[in-house]
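Submission sheet (multi-component)
Chains listed below:
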Amino acid sequence: MGRSIGKIVNPRFMGRKQRKDLLFAVVLLLPTFYILFKTFLFPIYQSLVWSMYKYHMLDGSDVVFVGFGNFIALFKNHDFWTATYFTGYFTVISTVAELVLGLFSALLLNQMFRGRVFFRMIIIIPWAMLTLVNGLLWKWIFQPGNGSFTIILKKIHVLSASENPLWLADAHNIINSVVVADVWKMTPFMTLLLLAGLQAIPSSLYEAAMMDGAGFWKKLWYVTIPQLFPILMIAVVLRTIAAFRVYDILTVFTGDPTTSISYLTFNKAFRYFYLGEASAMAWVSTAIILVFIVLYIRLLKKNSHEV
Amino acid sequence: MFEPTIEQSTIRNEVKPAVKLKSKLFKTKSTDLIPPFYLWSGLILLAIFTLAPFVYLFTSSISKTEELLSGHLIPHSPTLENYYKLFTGNGAGEFIAAMKNSVIVSLGTTIFTLFLAIFASYAFSKVKFPFRNSALFTVLAMQLLPSISIIAPLYVMMRNGISITIPFTSFVVFQTPPLLDTVWSLIISYTTFSLPFAIWIMTGYFQTIPKALEEAAIIDGCSRMGTLFRIIVPLAMPGIAATAIFTLLLAWDEFMFASAFTQSFDSKTLPIAIREFIGKHSINWGLMTAGGFIASLPPVLVSVFLYKYIVGGLAGGGVKE
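Outcome: structure written.
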């Protein structure tokens, strides 16, 4: 094994030490690479192949090569565009909300005050909760009649006693509620990431800004945000990638699979067993996320060069 | 010639804030932006927004069904009835089986992931070899790909059983029976998804350990494997702990693979069991919130008590979804 890989890099240019290192690395990495190849890289390649075929897993029909047929059918499919719209809507709204709330929470928690550790610890609770339970909890909160959202609105007289709106009546309202659930669960993640970034900002910058008579908003705009910018970008890209694959919470809120691409893909594959079409759809998600991954890696590399 | 294109500090820089955290905790800072009144208003809002839904989950679970239906937010006569029903009533066996499966799957995934990732991270952080950085960034990319990309091929793989062959030949070394509806299908697929981020975090931590320590150990007659287990693993314990926590939480939380690969309570995990509380006609909210609270308790307790490891891991590039 060592020799066959050695050939690729031409062993004549390698010293004895280097060859020994290479062999050692190969031994250490072999199990991991084998597993990742077998259960990750190969399946991704396989789903690309399947996306070119008409492949139904259960009905026993022939597997037929259709080229880009699945993709063309997909782009003509109304459900797919509805799902894309909702996924985009969910991703943008929840990421922006988490960014803004996370930034302000991080600013609060970066100050000195008694009980800071306590506050930093409790914000981790929503993040640690099961995603599915989080979904059910918010569905319960948004129940018409006896859900706490309705009850609280009635107590503070925003709603009159006789009103009883259905919060989860249509797809838009459902997505908005799912955004609330996701913001509640994932803002802490944003907060903790940004908090780590805030702690790295040298205090001399704030002192200088204070000398110039800058207030809160000016300090935020001219010191904090520029200094935090690399981490802000990374946090936004990470959340975008994660929000894009929303699935768990939606299955609790609605049986309507057109509310996200993941949901639609999952149903295509495991409810109707059209593996060819499902693979095509999965590859659309994969391609979109790959763009963000490239962006993320470039951001990471850029940060490391600047520092 | 094969020097890494990116300085090792790539990852070290990511870890640094976590180290700084401790020293900054006890100092007053001139970076305080927010005046006390706004600070405390904000903190109170933050605490309410964070805790109220979680408290509501608990208070609902100790309420009588009639009180929930008539819209009491705070139970007038708290009762453990729902918990009692959960563990002794109809379907209690299934809930307990799901708890058992969740424990087996999370622990199994964590053990496999750590075992594989320790060796891989050692290679990535301490051994020089060609294409090291490209391989590391490929691993990072895999960490971020959605599970939906590979779920259908993995399903077919689990249905047929996994065969381990010698690459480029048709010689089968080992063939497993079909794995659908077993905990193994979940352990294997979760390990696949945890490995990339485990390698990424641990490589970062391993790189922070000075080379001098290793060299000293080698001069003292330690083998390279010896230095891994006597020097690096003990020193990188915070990183390994963070990785273990993220892997545990991920395996405990995962829903998509579990709903595709499991059919019976031989393998159903807690998220699936709780999903099934949404009955055909109506939801028993009392029972549901009790089940949800029990299922959420282990990850919440782990996160709160091991908070500092999680913060260090997040700063080191850990992503748990």
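Remark: The two ends of chain B are 38 Å apart (CA to CA).
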